[in-house]
Each structure stands twice: as structure tokens, then as C-alpha cells.
Amino acid sequence: MAEQVIICKDLTKRFGDFMAVNKISFEVNRGEIFGFLGANGAGKTTAMRILCGLSYPTSGAATVAGFDVYKQQESIKRNIGYMSQKFSLYENLTVLENIEFYGGVYGLSRKTIRSRSDELINQLGLQQEARKLVGELPLGWKQKLAFSVAIFHQPQIVFLDEPTGGVDPVTRRQFWDMIYAAAASGITVFVTTHYMDEAEYCNRVTIMVDGKIEALDAPQALKARFQANNMEEVFYQLARGAKRSSD
């Protein structure tokens, strides 16, 4: 059996009377690309923040890389990478300075940082831009650099929150090539997105509607189940069904 690196059971998050995450349960396997899909406001980011050790759940249980979300948040943070939906690098530092800074934050030795920095810059083709300020780079390059920095310390799991928002289709495709490479190296990828076509790139997807998980399976299986041509049609059927049940 595949090793499960994320386990959630009835995970819930309330903000006063508002139920942002409503008793969600799922598991994620090591090396899997796991899509967490839903419209804006569906509860994706709230759930991810809990799994990243940035917020406590109201109730339920979850472990990430074997660590409890209530009691071992710092251990979770040391074993994951995280890329927020807002650009997360320092625009007033150079490309190389950003890489070195985050390498230090992740606790890597100076020798390791130097060798991995050279390797990363060559992989990204940023040899000419290494000493430029990150703020001078096009958005697509910023996003690819941010992802590379998020896995610089070779974490067990990387969480990506809407990583391709605002970039052009070609850059989105290139970004997913990088995700495939990370997964092939053994890193588990947990990615939230509201782009339904990106679900096709995942091994399995969860579809969130109003804080609840309405479906979880491989994209092909979901399309067959809902007799849909694409994941957008699957999502539309689920969202429409959820609306009818709440009326």
C-alpha cells in the first residue's frame, strides 16, 4: 500500500457562525500530485493553512508528514514547502539573495546553499539574471523561482496555493512541468486551484463546494462518473447539486 503523508478526518474550521471547512476527510499518498479544487471562497486556502501549521482547526484531526496539526506545527513547517497565492519572494533582493536567504531559513548549511543555488540558477536558465532584483523579473519567472525556492530544502510535501494565478497559458504549462519533476523526485504536491483544466494534470482531485468535499477521485474517473467531457463540467454539476440541496 502507498504511504499516506497527509491524513484528515472530519477536519473543521469555524469563524464565529461561519463554517469555512466542514468536516472534510481525505488522505494523500507520498509522491502524489493531489489537486484541491473549488471556486474562490470554497474553503481551499483555509484548509491548506491548517495543514501547513499556520492555523488551528476548530475540530477534527489531521497529520502532515506524520505530525499532528494541533501539537506539532513547528515539525510540520520543517518538513514542508509552501508557496502562497500572492508572490512570496522579496522583490528588493536579487535572485541569488532570495535563494540564499530561504536556504538559511530552512536550516541548510552554507556549503549546501552554494551548491544548490548554482544548480537551481542553471536549471531555471537565470544565469544572466542571478544578480538582478527579483522585482525586475516577469511574473512567470517570479512564480517559477518561488516554486523552486519552496522545494529548495527538498521537503516531503510542498503546498501550492493558486500557484498559476495571473500567468499566461504557456507559463502555466511550464510550471506544471516543474510540478511533475518535483513529484518524480518523491516530493508530494498538494495544489489548490480554481482552474478546472489543471485538474487534468493531477493524480487525484478533491472538489470543494461551500466548505465541503463533494467529490474525490482521479480526473478520468470523475469525468466518467458524471458523464462529462472535462472537469469544468464535473464542477458545474457538483456546484449545482450542492445549491439545490441547500435551497
TrEMBL record:
Source domain of life: Bacteria
A Pfam family that the UniProt record links to this protein: ABC_tran
Full protein name: ABC-2 type transport system ATP-binding protein
Key words, A-Z: ATP-binding, Nucleotide-binding
Domain ABC transporter: 6-235
InterPro entries per record: AAA+_ATPase, ABC_transporter-like_ATP-bd, P-loop_NTPase
UniProt GO molecular function: ATP binding; ATP hydrolysis activity
UniProt organism field: Chitinophaga dinghuensis
Alphabetical list of SUPFAM superfamilies matching this protein: P-loop containing nucleoside triphosphate hydrolases
